[in-house]
Amino acid sequence: MSRGFFITFEGLDGSGKSTQLAGLKAWLEARGESVTATRQPGGTHIGDGIRGLLLDSRTEALSPLTELGLMFADRAQSLAEVIRPALERGRVVLCDRFTDSTEAYQGGGRQLGSQIVLDLHAQLCGGLQPDLTFLLLPDLERALQRARRRNTRAEAERSRGRNENRFESEDHAFYRRVLEKYREIAARETGRVVVIDGDGSIEEVRQRIANLTQERLR
Fold first, then answer.
1. DSSP per position, 181-196
2. Where in 122-192 does DSSP place strands (E)?
3. Given this model, what pLDDT does residue 151 score?
4. d(CA 214, CA 208)
5. Model-level pTM?
6. Contact, 4 vs 86, CB < 8 A?
7. Which among 111, 189, 190, 194 has most CB atoms closer than 10 A?
8. Residue range of the domain that includes 208
9. Cα Rg of the chain (Å, integer)
């Protein structure tokens, strides 16, 4: 059996990654493809616990290096439990965020730099890279507005003891650094990363992603 195909979705919070991943999953399955969809952080029992710690706005005084280490602990578990087994079975794997997110958010946003992220990826992930990455980069202000509206609607979860808006509370300078780092990654990884700029409709973006995926799968 041939190795499967690994596709990741990247972008700012509120960029529409999760919506587009779900759309591509449905499109691929309608074509008869075997698909495994996951997310980072999360996607495993251990990873979901790490996700709760990383994204909960009540998590205070988490150092950037601790945050980085937790991101890679989650990723190593996801690779061992979900991603590598699915690829070995010849499946198409769709992942909402991967190491590019860590380079953008911790390397860029937290100002740790790219090299520490790339070194950890080589050591803990065996250097595994996606076959194709869709980087969704709508207007920064609009993306953040969408992300914050989404989290405002989710505030009811706070009363149940949990929410996931720790990153959305960061300032614009943080997100500007994240955006700049994403663009740096795209310029460096031109054969892998497809940048989808602007604010096209959900259906327009979905069709473009489907067309590009079809070309790569051939």
1. HHHHHHHH-TTTEEEE
2. 132-137
3. 58
4. 10
5. 0.91
6. yes
7. 194
8. 5-217
9. 17
State the virtual CA torsion across 102, 108, 114, 119 in degrees, nearest 10: -30
How many domains is the chain built from?
Answer: 1
Q: With contact defined as beta carbons under 8 Å apart, do 11 and 135 qualify?
A: yes
Tokens of 96: 């909402």
Omega of the bond prior to 130 within 30 degrees of 0, cis? Answer: no
Q: Could you tell me which residues come within 8 angstroms of residue 156 by beta carbon, excluding any fewer than 6 positions away?
A: none
The three-state secondary structure class of 7 is: strand
Q: What is the reported pLDDT for 180?
A: 95
Phi-psi region of 133 (alpha: psi -120 to 50; beta: other; left: phi over 0): beta
Residues 81, 158: Cα–Cα separation, whole Å: 30
Q: Which residues of 109-142 are buried (b: 16+ CB within 10 A; e: fewer)?
A: bbebebeebeebbeeebeeebbbbbbbbbbebee
**What are the φ/ψ torsions at residue 107 (nearest 5 degrees)?**
-65, -45
166, 55 contact by CB (below 8 A) = yes
Binned average pLDDT, 10 residues per bin, the chain of 218 residues: 89 91 98 97 96 87 95 98 98 98 98 98 96 91 68 51 71 92 97 90 95 94
Distance CA 122, CA 144 (A): 31
What angle separates helix 202-217 from helix 17-30, to the nearest 10 degrees? 50
**pLDDT of amino acid 98:** 98
